[in-house]
Amino acid sequence: MRHRFDEVRRPFLASLVSATVRVRKLSERVGRYGKFGTGFFIYGGEGMIITAYHVVTNSRVVWVEPLKLSKRGWRIRTTGKYVADVVYRDKYADIAVLRVRKGYATGYVAHTGKDTTLPPVTHPLIRVGYDSSGSIIAEGHVMSHTKAPKSKLQHIDISMPSDSGGSGGPVFDANGILVGVMLWCGKDRHEAQWCSALPIGTVIQRLLRSKEIREHFPNGMG
Known about the structure:
This protein has 222 residues and is mainly beta. It folds into two domains: 117 residues, Thrombin, subunit H; 77 residues, Thrombin, subunit H (Beta Barrel). The strands form two sheets. A six-stranded antiparallel barrel has the order 1-2-3-7-6-4. A six-stranded antiparallel barrel has the order 8-9-10-13-12-11. Strand 8 and strand 9 form a beta hairpin. The longest helix is centred in the first third of the chain and has 9 residues. The radius of gyration is 16 Å and the shape is globular. The model has no long low-confidence stretch (mean pLDDT 84).
């Protein structure tokens, strides 16, 4: 489904898109039903990308394809293809970290802000992702805060459509501040779509405790 927005929002939405990438395994082609996921740059200068663990699973190396919003219309396209190493896996929380090899640098990153508390119920949210209908920008709101069945980690449940391929994408608030990583989607008993995101505060806490992150990003996460 294609979305249209007010033109005055174009620069703002373009910056969110430019922080986002499509992620896929080296051995897989991307077709209408191909396997792929989403990720996003976080913290400038280090080539760090966060995505979902189930997007990369046991892969050591993946492709990342940066996204860009067209100057006219609201189509999102890829702007190249780069190799990235999977440097951190957290199956328990379903997150992974990639590091882009030399050859690509982005001026756009997802900003976390100083306040990493959970956004309140009804708070408006925006996500950028790549699914079977193509790259999209979608808007929704916080439905509730729940614990994941397996990990028991706190998640943000969002009233927002998605599809296969959106996993690992960024979820922003209305000001463009990163609030979470989208992990899975489902439908309620009324067939309404909803998604679940891991709060960025939880992600950062887990990364800061990681030996792999300290080794691959010696300059820190700031």
